[in-house]
């Protein structure tokens, strides 16, 4: 019984270390790729991003993050409205180079920072 308890505690600590480092990684990936232009709670070059995960369509969000330029060219109304407000057109292949894994981590970070 003592060993069983010990084992449970060990398992629990391992899990919590694993999940907290996953969280930390998502934040790091966000800061490295988006942090120069975005804060969660304050506007920088671009708008603050708290709650954006809940407020936008998920497919739209992914496509926008990776390449809003092409959405602008396709006259996506929300993309055009954002551009008209911020006037920067920053989300293109020059500024954003993240792979699918990093995109997932960033989306998880945005999801964690709810309204
Ligand atoms: C070079 C600066 C820059 C970088 C880097 C950047 N953004 Fe942006 N982002 C902006 C600006 C400026 C806007 C406003 C739209 C415009 O000006 O066209 C914006 C708009 C957005 C929007 C739309 C907000 C809304 O209300 O729907 C999201 C989401 C977003 N960015 C997420 C990200 C994520 C995630 C990253 C990192 C992978 C990132 N951005 C990297 C500058 C940047």
Defining traits:
115 residues, mainly alpha, Cytochrome Bc1 Complex, Chain D, domain 2, 5 helices, 65% helix, 0% strand, elongated, binds heme C
What can you see in these coordinates?
With 115 residues, the chain is mostly helical. It has a single domain, classed as Orthogonal Bundle (Cytochrome Bc1 Complex, Chain D, domain 2), CATH 1.10.760.10. It has helices spanning 2-33, 52-55, 58-73, 77-86, 100-112. The chain is elongated. It starts with a helix and ends with a helix. The structure holds heme C. The site of heme C (HEC) has 26 residues, from α3 and α4.
Assembly state: single chain
Number of domains: 1
Summarize the helix and strand pattern as letters. HHHHH
The largest pleated sheet is described as:
none
List the helices and strands and how they pair.
Elements: H1 2-33, H2 52-55, H3 58-73, H4 77-86, H5 100-112
Helix pairs in contact: 1-5, 3-4
Short description:
This protein has 115 residues and is mainly alpha-helical. 65% of the residues lie in helices and 0% in strands. Helix 1 packs across helix 5 (100-112) and helix 3 packs across helix 4 (77-86).
């Amino acid at each position: 019984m003592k060993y069983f308890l010990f084992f449970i505690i060990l398992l629990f600590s391992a899990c919590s270390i694993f999940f907290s480092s996953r969280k930390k990684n998502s934040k790091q990936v966000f800061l490295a790729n988006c942090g120069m232009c975005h804060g969660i709670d304050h506007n920088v070059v671009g708008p603050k991003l708290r709650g954006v995960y809940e407020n936008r369509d998920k497919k739209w969000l992914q496509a926008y993050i990776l390449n809003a330029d092409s959405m602008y060219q396709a006259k996506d109304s929300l993309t055009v409205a954002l551009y008209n407000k911020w006037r920067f057109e920053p989300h293109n292949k020059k500024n954003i180079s993240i792979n699918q894994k990093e995109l997932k981590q960033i989306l998880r970070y945005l999801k964690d920072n709810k309204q």
